[in-house]
Amino acid sequence: MKRTTLSLIAAATALAAVTGFAALTAPDGSTSVGAKAPAKLPVERSSLLCPAPSSSELAETDYTSYTPGTTGSGSSTAAAQASPATAQLKAAPTAATPGGTTAKKPGAAKAPATVTQPGKPVAAEANGPTAPALTGSATGGLAPGWTVQQTTVVTAGGARGLLGVTCTAPDTDFWFPAASTAKGRQDYVHLTNPDDSAAVADIELHGPEGALKSQLTEGIPVPAHSTVPVLLSTLTGEAPAADLTVHVTTRSGRVGAVVGAADDKLGSDWLPASADPAGTAVLPGIPADATSVRLVAYAPGENDAELKIQLVGETGTIVPASAQSLHVKSGMTAAVDLPDLTRGETGSLLLSPSDPKKSTPFVAALRVTRGKGDKQEVAFIPATAAIGTRATVADNRAAGSTLSLTAPGEAAQVKVTASAGTGGGTPVSKTVTVKAGTTTKVTDLVPAGLKGSYALTVERVSGGPVHASRLLAVPEDGIPMFTVQTLVDDRGTVAVPTAKQDLSVLDD
Question: Which residues of 240-271 are buried (b: 16+ CB within 10 A; e: fewer)?
């Protein structure tokens, strides 16, 4: 009889640190007897994708790249210490769109923001219509929590507005409620492939009456290290729809996906993907001076969703008088206007089942407008998951940045850190208590001696779930230009087994 012992812990640790595997299990699915709880170690590689900023000649784009200082269980893994750390983006050319049209070839842009050390943000510019989409990765000690913010100002024209987006990680499934093919709207879904092989994507459109008949939406090729912008109105011959839900999936490979929405009257901004379908949702950070708020939701399953609408404000949670509930039919997009929603207080929307015993998964997003008449500006707030451990948003300014923290259930404490500035300054931190069922705004946390822009990092300390977003306001010619970025957990750590596991095979 021969006994062969396989010691897998070294390989498992390296693999988990890169890919996110959380545990090592036996063939029957059980964890090894007597094994200690997995330790959380920093990831060793992160990937991000930024869409092409704008087609306007007037576009002025800032990139801010940042990796937080290390926290938690260790400064880095052995592999991170042994290999050089990098965090860099590079241009991704625009490929042919469905239908055979090739967008304008991007010209050379300035070198994108390159992080050189944790805790110090760096910035770069890329102006005009030739600024390309970007793909990039961070490795070693610069990978955990790596964040890139893309902020574009367009002062006139059909794409006028402040457009902000946190560059996204690649994935295979995205939901975008609040898109549109209405007259006066130009909505593009940008598909960017970070990998060495081509990806293949599908796009589905769902309106108030169900799925729209569409063309050229299946099997869209996205070449390696390139981007494909797809104009939604070209995908269907049906009547324009004011409220759409866009579903992007991949058959092979993975992409980054985000919707660029431009309204002739309301300006433009990026619409990021909603959190995955769930029975409840929080949409954080509605500005206190919002003049119009429209909720759009979609139920992808076989059952209708009957949703209770609540506003989590600075002083408590209420049911708004303008709309108390929303019925979302299965496979159909539903929408409702919420006039006079915030009444001068920053708030967040909480959506939950009207009957707690009948929870139906859904996705949701808000279209938010500030200003009046021809001085209006639009932004989008998708449903966002709670911060797990830590989240960061970059490109905050000395004036005009508002961080919103929402505790929809029990009270919570978080540590908020303002980093050094891109041109200098001293980091500052404070602990913020968010009362149960309220939204707390933070506007006064600015690095001492700030030069340039800075990053805000939120770390959960204790208590219940916290959802967060950042509003950036940059007024221009009397127009209250603004953009809202929701904060998602930075996935800077991964659970790795800490005890040796012995898998033995007995052979006769």
Answer: ebbbbbbbbbbeebbbbbbbbbbbeebbbbbb
